[in-house]
């Protein structure tokens, strides 16, 4: 089903935490009535502490502040920041706090992976950047590579509404009646720009395949070029088939992936797909300067997406995700240019001939990791074309 785009927005692409955190904090400090924030990770560190202080300042001047974090991704939040924020007047809730950390039971894997914010119904942020220091990794010398978008215009009301619906569900499940809320504040409905976009969410009720379908629609319609940058890339059969079909009809496809090993099983499972991608004529780059956490794509220089959803089973089948889908040449070209710079300055292109020279035990390692991931997906209740 085609996505209903909303026109009249002004979208600002934000590259990594260096641009995102100042923009978010400035919006919170300018809030007059309401701040809503959702994140998978919220750390008490060099990036998280300034955001927490901005939330506290807003609450102190009478702004209603609501914060929702994931119980797994923000595992240390309950002790580090939760009591402090509650004492300061921030309404803070934890999504699925009661977590057995190592479990393949399906409901335990359904995490809140969205990264959204809404301020006064006027400004929203949609993207993939967690509230965590970009350099908070052992030996980190360069910031995480990721994106977010600052949104102004009619689309803000959709972001606000999506966040309020989830907040209502969590407050009901948590028996926090005093945190119940009413309708959204009057959002900016008049056009402030010329860019058309939509908020696409993935959940386990009405929008189970919405983000994947948005990708597939763009891939199947592409005639010239597709660029994908993704932190955790392990697409299912439908997604791979669409990519191969696009390559067969002459579409230039470039995929930018993680070059640093963060989670070994997932990293090597992804590499098990390299041979088929390269044989199909798809260019594959690995980003080397830092951890790549981007979840973005561009098609034909006019379609783009920025959000929280990886192209892997966790994001596409289990987690709550939110992506912005944009149809605008200026925005798409801005993102494509940024990705081209990242590939030129900090990525290494893989060659089919070099990949085929891997030793048999290296190939066996990657094949085994891929099969283990498939087995885990099956245990969680998914399989086949997924």
Secondary structure blueprint with pairings:
Blueprint: E1 6-15, H1 16-29, E2 34-39, H2 48-60, E3 64-70, H3 77-80, H4 82-87, E4 91-95, E5 116-119, E6 123-127, E7 147-152, H5 156-174, E8 195-202, H6 210-221, E9 225-230, H7 237-248, E10 252-258, H8 264-271, H9 274-279, E11 283-287, E12 295-299, E13 303-307, H10 313-318, E14 321-327, H11 329-346, E15 347-350, H12 352-355, H13 360-379
Parallel strand pairs: 2-3, 3-4, 9-10, 10-11
Antiparallel strand pairs: 1-7, 1-8, 2-5, 5-6, 6-7, 8-14, 9-12, 11-15, 12-13, 13-14
Helix pairs in contact: 1-2, 6-7, 8-13
Describe the structure.
It contains 13 helices and 15 strands. Residues 381-386 have low confidence and may be disordered. The protein is 37% helix and 23% strand. The chain is α+β, with helices and mostly antiparallel strands. It has two domains: 8-179, Endonuclease, Chain A (2-Layer Sandwich), CATH 3.30.870; 208-305 and 327-379, Endonuclease Chain A (Endonuclease, Chain A, 2-Layer Sandwich). It has a 15-stranded mixed beta sheet, sandwiched between helices.
Give Rg in angstroms.
20 Å
Strand content: 15-25%
Q: Uncertain regions: pLDDT < 50 for 5+ in a row?
A: 381-386
**Using DSSP, what is the number of strands?**
15
Mean pLDDT: 88
Superfamily at the CATH H level of the largest domain?
Endonuclease Chain A
First-last Cα distance: 19 Å
What CATH architecture label of the largest domain applies?
2-Layer Sandwich
| CATH class division of the largest domain | Alpha Beta
What would you call the structural class? alpha+beta
- The biggest beta sheet, please? 15 strands, mixed
How many helices does DSSP assign? 13
Oligomer: single chain
Query: How many discrete domains?
Result: 2
- Percent range for helical residues? 25-40%
């Amino acid at each position: 089903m085609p996505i209903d785009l909303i026109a009249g927005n002004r979208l600002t692409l934000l590259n990594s935490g260096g641009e995102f955190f100042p923009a978010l904090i400035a919006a919170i400090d300018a809030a007059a009535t309401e701040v809503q924030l959702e994140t998978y990770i919220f750390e008490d560190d060099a990036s998280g502490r300034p955001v927490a202080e901005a939330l506290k300042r807003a609450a102190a001047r009478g702004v209603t502040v609501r914060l929702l974090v994931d119980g797994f991704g923000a595992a240390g939040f309950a002790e580090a920041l939760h009591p402090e924020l509650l004492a300061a007047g921030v309404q803070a809730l934890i999504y699925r706090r009661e977590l057995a950390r190592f479990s393949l039971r399906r409901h335990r894997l359904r995490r809140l992976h969205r990264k959204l914010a809404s301020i006064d119904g006027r400004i929203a942020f949609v993207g993939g950047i967690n509230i965590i220091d970009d350099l908070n990794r052992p030996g980190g010398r360069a910031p995480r590579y990721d994106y977010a978008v600052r949104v102004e215009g009619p689309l803000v009301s959709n972001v606000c509404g999506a966040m309020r619906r989830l907040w209502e569900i969590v407050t009901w499940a948590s028996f926090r009646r005093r945190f119940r809320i009413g309708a959204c504040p009057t959002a900016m409905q008049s056009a402030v720009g010329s860019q058309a976009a939509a908020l696409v969410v993935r959940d386990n009720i009405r929008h189970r395949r919405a983000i994947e379908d948005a990708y597939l629609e763009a891939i199947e319609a592409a005639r010239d070029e597709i660029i994908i940058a993704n932190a955790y890339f392990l697409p299912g059969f439908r997604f791979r088939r669409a990519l191969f079909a696009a390559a067969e009809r002459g579409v230039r496809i470039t995929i930018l992936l993680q070059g640093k090993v963060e989670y070994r099983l997932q990293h090597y499972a992804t590499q098990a797909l390299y041979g088929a991608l390269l044989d199909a004529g798809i260019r594959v780059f690995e980003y080397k300067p830092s951890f790549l956490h981007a979840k973005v794509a561009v098609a034909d220089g006019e379609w783009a997406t920025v959000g929280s959803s990886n192209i892997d089973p966790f994001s596409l089948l289990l987690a709550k995700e939110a992506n912005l889908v944009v149809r605008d040449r200026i925005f798409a070209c801005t993102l494509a240019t940024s990705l081209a710079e990242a590939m030129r300055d900090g990525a290494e292109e893989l060659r089919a001939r070099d990949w085929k020279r891997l030793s048999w035990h290296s190939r066996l390692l990657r094949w085994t990791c891929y099969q283990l991931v498939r087995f885990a997906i099956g245990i969680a209740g998914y399989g086949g074309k997924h």
